[in-house]
Design a protein that fits this description.
This protein is α/β, with parallel strands linked by helices. The protein is built from 27 helices and 16 strands. It has an eight-stranded mixed β-sheet, sandwiched between helices. The chain has an eight-stranded mixed β-sheet with strand order 9-10-12-11-13-14-15-16, sandwiched between helices. β9 and β10 form a beta hairpin. α17 packs across α27. It is elongated, with a radius of gyration of 32 Å. The model has no long low-confidence stretch (mean pLDDT 90).
């Protein structure tokens, strides 16, 4: 018995000694090979986690050497051995989508409408990770965002190299999109999401599905510190964070090779950059280059890397690194510009930081909306540590909360869409309009989040996204930017010679006086110039609320006068100049036309073209405002909000304006002959109209908004003596537009004063439809019809 006891003590001593040696060796390796910068919060915790991972890898190697199991197999087992119990808020079920294992997390609380669906692809360098390793994360996403989350258990390398993981994630996503309603998910609101290698897979799947016409478009992609390229492992973040846990630079290259072909033989060549031929390196430099990284991310140190020659045998082994399905950062612009709204999370102390920054730039350059969140004190893998008991990191929780906020923003967008607007049966392509509106609301909601975070104002964010994509050269037009005095303009002139002087259209863009720009209306101005063979001048007037009334009006007026005085310099007949604008731009065109009507020192304007113009702010209860109060793209409340923002940058009294309590009774009586539902033809009241009794007049409100009754701001209020001097007019109205009756009332005023009016009414049109006449898959034929009528009017003058 004493012998047995002695042996047990010896075995225990050996075990304890071995454990101590293992921990000491792991600590020595950690302190010798890793570097934790001062900016990382809670560095001691990070060292402990790293030492545990090293110890696990060492034990795995020992077991592999004695033939018990492979190192990879042991590490995978240790990662997946902890299972969680039931979740009181979620239904959790394991299924198979075709041949791919998945785990579905569905909120138990009933939903009034279909939910979002989130396809989640776990990280782990394509070699590690599983449904279990990301269980806490997926549960949290499902609970907090009230979404259905599908975690995909794709096949792992090196046993199943590329494209196995990509194919599993793609097939699982397609299966879910085709059957999403079975899980209570709206097929138009499916999101792909992944961290690290999973972020790579999410980006690849998103690109593949972008061109699919047989499936709904993905709603968004969420990329959490994604690895997106394997061309350059010497970008600033790879140099600065080469030894920062939990992902070393060498391990990033190792994992990429394991995923590619299960062989890490050429790690050194990849790190040196000698795996890519010079011509290919030059080809992709426009997308993968330290030059595209903002300078502030280089201040911690960056040394340009001299690349070595590329041995042919190395390139032949790794040439598939140039495939976008493996390295999404290399996809062509034609694919990137089709991608959905995106969320990208990066960490300052992560080798993959610059992959995320480069992809953010590519997406934004191609007009894709991006919400970016950067963890200044974060490191690779921190999201997984958001709830790891005493080894948790507050930064990981912050990052996860921002992801959830992004998902919830989309959810609130959907709720807002279905509860606050209605699309009448007469609108064609109502599904397209639903999607366009949801996108606009998403922009607004994301802008609000960024404003609360102190990144930028909601208005600035919306303006940035509304500026439009830069178009290429135009073979039939000469285009150039200029300044008329202090006002920026863009001139479009046909290249073809003209037998005589041309007509010119001075265009004032819409956007509620707050949004849009010359770039936003580039397509429309090019089209008018080409098809009407006219010179078009697009005016970039100052925007409210920074520049309230009369800034926009003065800019448009001054630009018009400047052009009329110098029109022959542009090959234009000074007696054949037209002012034109849509929405708020229609208001500005009408105001400029009235101002110039009495000028004897200038030629008379040839015509005015008013496209669904906003012409008064007295009565927001006319038939069209009641019938179309919730019809996109302009709600009744927003029309009042824009008018106040233009007036003085203060939308405090929107409710009083909507109620009609901002007008003194005597003034309402004075203008009733011009602004009254009695002047609207009865056929426009059949969809419903209830006479409105204005609320009690509030003098203090009137004092703040009395500028609304100036004709230069509300052209419908101009006197008859001025109206009768106006030029020939074209007015376009839309049936499903709150501003319809503004156009109808102005049409009557012009005709009553002997002004010739060409009126075109889009029976199936809505506010803003002209901008959607050529908007990729969201084009509306009615918009094209309206624009063609405008062109015909200009040509026939």
């Amino acid at each position: 018995m004493a012998v047995v006891y002695t042996l047990l003590v010896l075995l225990l001593a050996v075990f304890v000694a071995g454990f101590i040696l293992l921990v000491m060796g792991a600590m020595n390796f950690d302190f010798s090979n890793s570097e934790i910068p001062p900016g990382v919060s809670q560095p001691v915790k990070l060292r402990i986690i790293h030492i545990i991972l090293i110890s696990r890898a060492v034990v795995g190697k020992i077991l592999e050497n004695i033939g018990i199991c492979s190192q990879v197999g042991f590490v995978r087992y240790m990662q997946s051995r902890k299972t969680l119990g039931a979740d009181p808020k979620l239904f959790i079920k394991d299924l198979w989508f075709e041949k791919v294992p998945v785990r579905i997390y569905q909120p138990k609380v009933p939903s009034a409408s279909q939910r979002k669906g989130v396809m989640f692809f776990h990280g782990g360098g394509w070699v590690f990770g599983s449904l279990e390793t990301h269980e806490k994360l997926c549960r949290s996403l499902a609970r907090e965002s009230e979404s259905v989350v599908v975690s995909v258990g794709y096949r792992l390398a090196p046993e199943h190299p590329y494209p196995a993981a990509y194919e599993d994630c793609l097939n699982a996503t397609i299966h879910f999109m085709k059957n999403s309603e079975h899980y209570g998910v709206d097929p138009a609101n499916v999101i792909v999401c992944g961290d690290s290698a999973g972020g790579n897979l999410a980006a690849a799947v998103s690109q593949t599905l972008a061109g699919r016409s047989d499936l709904p478009k993905l709603r968004a992609q969420v990329l959490i510190y994604p690895g997106l390229q394997a061309l350059d492992f010497n970008l600033p973040s790879y140099q600065q964070n080469r030894g920062v846990p939990l992902l070393f630079r060498e391990r990033a290259a190792f994992f990429a090779l394991q995923y590619l072909n299960g062989d890490a033989l050429h790690v050194q060549e990849i790190l040196e950059g000698s795996h890519i031929p010079p011509d290919m390196r030059l080809k992709y430099r426009k997308w993968v280059s330290p030059d595209n990284i903002p300078e502030k991310f280089k201040v911690r140190g960056y040394k340009p890397h001299v690349l070595l020659d590329c041995p042919t045998e190395v390139y032949e082994t790794v040439k598939r690194f140039c495939e976008p399905n493996l390295c999404p950062l290399l996809a062509e612009d034609a694919v990137v510009h089709q991608l959905p709204e995106s969320f990208i999370l990066t960490c300052e102390y992560d080798v993959l930081r610059d992959d995320g920054l480069l992809y953010k730039k590519r997406l934004e350059d191609n007009g894709v909306r991006v919400t970016w969140y950067h963890l200044e004190d974060g490191f690779h893998g921190i999201i997984n540590s958001f709830n790891s008991d005493w080894l948790s990191f507050s930064s990981g929780k912050r990052g996860l909360d921002n992801i959830v906020n992004f998902l919830k923003t989309i959810l609130e967008t959907i709720k807002f869409e279905y509860s606050n607007f209605s699309i009448p049966p007469g609108v064609n392509h109502s599904g397209k309009l639903h999607i366009v509106l949801a996108s606009m609301i998403s922009i607004s909601a994301m802008g609000k989040i960024l404003e609360k975070m102190g990144v930028c104002s909601q208005i600035v964010f919306a303006r940035y996204l509304s500026f439009g994509r830069k178009l290429g050269p135009e073979p039939r037009l000469s285009l150039w930017d200029a300044r008329f005095g202090r006002v920026p303009v863009r001139v479009y002139r046909p290249r073809a010679p003209s037998a005589g002087l041309r007509a010119a259209a001075i265009f004032f863009h819409g956007g509620g006086w707050l949004y849009c720009s010359i770039d936003t209306y580039e397509k429309i101005c090019r089209y008018i110039a080409r098809e009407s063979d006219s010179v078009v001048v697009s005016v970039g007037y100052r925007l409210a609320p920074e520049h309230p009334y009369p800034a926009a009006y003065e800019d448009c007026l001054n630009a018009t006068i400047h052009f009329m005085k110098n029109s022959e310099h542009y090959g234009v007949d000074p007696a054949n100049v037209i002012v034109c604008g849509d929405s708020a731009g229609g208001n500005l065109a009408a105001a400029v036309s009235q101002t110039l009507a009495g000028r004897s020192d200038l030629p008379k304007l040839r015509a005015q073209v008013l496209i669904y113009p906003g012409l008064q702010a007295l009565d927001f209860n006319l038939p069209s405002y009641q019938q179309n109060r919730g019809v996109p793209l302009l709600f009744r409340e927003r029309a009042a909000f824009f008018a106040l923002q233009y007036l003085n940058g203060d939308a405090l009294h929107v409710q009083e304006i909507l109620e009609g309590s901002h007008i003194p009774p005597d003034m309402r009586l004075k203008y009733r002959k011009w602004v009254s539902p009695d002047n609207i033809p009865e056929k426009f009241k059949v969809r419903g109209y209830k006479p409105h009794k204005p609320h009690e007049f509030k003098a203090e409100v009137f004092e703040k908004v009395k500028g609304l009754f100036v004709p230069n701001l509300c052209p419908l209020l101009a006197e008859d003596a001025l109206i009768q001097q106006l030029p020939e007019s074209f007015i376009l109205t839309c049936e499903y537009d709150v501003l319809r009756d503004d156009g109808l009332l102005y049409k009557k005023r012009l005709e009553d004063n002997g002004v010739r009016v060409t009126w075109y009414h889009l029976e199936d049109g809505f506010h803003g439809i002209i901008n959607l006449c050529d908007y990729y898959c969201f084009s509306f034929p009615a918009g094209k019809r309206g624009l063609d009528r405008i062109v015909k009017f200009i040509k026939d003058l």
